[in-house]
Specification:
The chain is mainly α. Helix content is about 80%, strand content about 0%.
Length: about 140
């Protein structure tokens, strides 16, 4: 799911119909379920990306140290590394690798989605108080 899709969903779901506050309060568990499911799925996706990232870093480390086997290089479509790199400098080359950069960006996007969904879930948990405050305000303005 894309970040924009999450925002679009929340843009619709965040609106509280003041004329139907009772129904709005009954929608809270359904909303929580919807966004918690998204949150859980996105968290699993993040864990998968992070695991793939760790494997990729290991492969790139072996590649730059010259210890990666030819079969794996062929499988990945990598050519043998012509450079002689010091062990202490390997990390400099790894962080500049395009697929490392791409995976790092994917991790950032996944974390952003999780942060947004956490914020939405907190808002949903407070929705009952918002509805109660709206009801209290309606009572107060009608003289009750």
């Amino acid at each position: 799911m894309k970040l924009d899709e999450i925002f679009d969903n929340w843009d619709e779901d965040s609106v509280i119909n003041q004329a139907e506050l009772g129904r709005e309060s009954l929608k809270i568990p359904k909303l929580h379920h919807k966004y918690f499911r998204m949150f859980s799925n996105e968290r699993l996706i993040l864990r998968k990306i992070e695991t793939d990232f760790k494997r990729l870093v290991l492969l790139k480390t072996e590649y730059y140290l010259g210890t990666l086997d030819a079969d794996t290089m062929r499988e990945k479509g990598w050519k043998p590394n012509p450079l002689r790199i010091l062990k202490t400098d390997v990390q400099l080359y790894i962080v500049a690798e395009p697929d490392i950069i791409e995976t790092t960006l994917r991790i950032g996007v996944a974390k952003e989605k999780i942060d947004v969904l956490e914020s939405i879930l907190k808002n949903i948990l407070n929705r009952g108080f918002q509805i109660k405050n709206a009801l209290d305000y309606l009572k107060w303005t009608s003289g009750g």
